[in-house]
Structure formats: C-alpha cells, structure tokens
C-alpha cells in the first residue's frame, strides 16, 4: 500500500460527506427536483465526482435518506434513554431533528424512493420509536389523546423548512417554534418556551406584517 492510498480514501470519505450534506440543504431549499448540478455546486465538487460515488439520482437520495434516518434514530434512542419523561424526550428529539432541517428532508426523499426496501425499513424503525414516545406521553396523561404520529411529524417538517424564497430561519426562532409546538401537545397549558428572540421581531410575518405587537 502506498502512502497516497489512505489519503485518497480519506478524500473520498470527505467528498461523500460534503455531497450528502449539500444534498440535504438543496432538497430543503429547492425541493425533490433539485438538480445534480446544484448539489455538486454546493458540495464544491464536479458532477463527475457525484456519479463516481453514487450510481445516479435515486442512489444519491437513497443514501441521503439512510444518513438522515440513521441520525434521527440515534437521537430518538438517546432521548428516550436520557430524558426524564416521554414528552421531554419528544422535545429533545424535535430540536435535534431541526438541525440542518433534517425532519424536512425525509418527506421529499420518500416521495422519490417509494420502492426502496432498506429505506422503508429504516423509516419504520424511526417511526416506531417516535410513536412509542407519543404513546407513552399519552398514557401518562402528559399529551393530548387526539394527536397521531402524522400530526407531530408533519408539523415538525413544516416548522423546519424555510418558506419559499426566504432565507433559512434563525436557530433561536426555530427552537422557540418547536417549543410552542410541544407545549401545544400538552393536556394542560404550560408554556415552557423561551422568550421570542430579538431577531424574529423584525422579520415579516406570514401575512407581510412585522411580528411585533
């Protein structure tokens, strides 16, 4: 083995990581039809590099999905093991899922890879973990019983994806929105979210007005 071989493998691993991260960002901002050219541009590699690492668009989305599902599954397991109750675990999971808008990536990947069995299996594992957390929170009387898994995941995906044409939301703003979501799931009103970050007070609201009262 020459000295250059480990270096080449390390470079290939770094390229792969950059491509997957760039694909996540591009999917969130441009949707599932984002071009390979845009992903390559964000990753700082050529189109040929992507096609050397992945067999095509479907293969790239397959690996993006597995990467994101792996991260979120690990976070759900850690939250379940370390938090004091199921609702706190859901809150922690939701905050982790907002990192890099991971929760918003998955619906777009699923739509392009419906017949992908390994991806489907990984997805079912994650959904099972989150559903168990919700069931536990409902059984202990902490969460409303009229909520289902789809309610929670759909809201989480929408909160973590920027509106079309807008920049990525400020981290503190997203964290507050997630805390408001979790508080809305409670059986009793009990606001635990932080104060509105100053940066959000000057942003345009959904109907074009500022968010100041």
From TrEMBL:
A Pfam family annotated for this UniProt entry: TetR_N
GO MF annotations, alphabetized: DNA-binding transcription factor activity; transcription cis-regulatory region binding
Domain HTH tetR-type: from-to ranges: 13-72
Source organism superkingdom: Bacteria
SUPFAM superfamilies: Homeodomain-like, Tetracyclin repressor-like, C-terminal domain
InterPro entries with a match to the protein in the record: Homeodomain-like_sf, HTH-type_TetR-like_transc_reg, HTH_TetR, Tet_transcr_reg_TetR-rel_C_sf, TetR_SbtR-like_C
Residue segments, region Disordered: 194-213
Keywords: DNA-binding, Transcription, Transcription regulation
Coiled coil segments of this chain: none
Residues of the DNA-binding region: 35-54
Gene3D superfamilies, per database record: Tetracycline Repressor, domain 2 (1.10.357.10)
The keyword DNA damage is assigned to this record: no
Identification of the protein by name: HTH tetR-type domain-containing protein
Organism: Wenjunlia vitaminophila
């Amino acid at each position: 083995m020459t000295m250059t071989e480990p270096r080449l493998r390390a470079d290939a691993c770094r390229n792969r990581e950059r491509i997957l991260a760039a694909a996540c960002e591009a999917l969130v901002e441009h949707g599932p039809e984002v071009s390979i050219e845009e992903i390559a541009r964000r990753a700082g590699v050529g189109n040929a590099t992507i096609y050397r690492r992945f067999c095509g668009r479907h293969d790239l989305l397959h690996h993006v999905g597995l990467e994101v599902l792996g991260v979120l599954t690990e976070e759900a397991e850690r939250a379940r093991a370390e938090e004091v109750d199921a609702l706190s675990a859901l809150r922690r999971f939701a905050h982790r899922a907002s990192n890099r808008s991971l929760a918003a990536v998955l619906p777009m990947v699923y739509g392009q890879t419906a017949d992908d069995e390994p991806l489907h299996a990984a997805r079912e594992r994650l959904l099972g973990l989150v559903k168990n957390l919700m069931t536990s929170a409902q059984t202990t009387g902490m969460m409303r019983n009229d909520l289902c898994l789809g309610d929670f995941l759909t809201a989480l995906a929408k909160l973590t994806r920027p509106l079309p044409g807008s920049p990525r939301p400020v981290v503190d703003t997203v964290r507050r929105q997630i805390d408001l979501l979790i508080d809305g799931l409670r059986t009793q009103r009990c606001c635990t979210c932080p104060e509105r970050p100053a940066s959000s007070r000057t942003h345009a609201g959904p109907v074009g007005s500022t968010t100041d009262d």
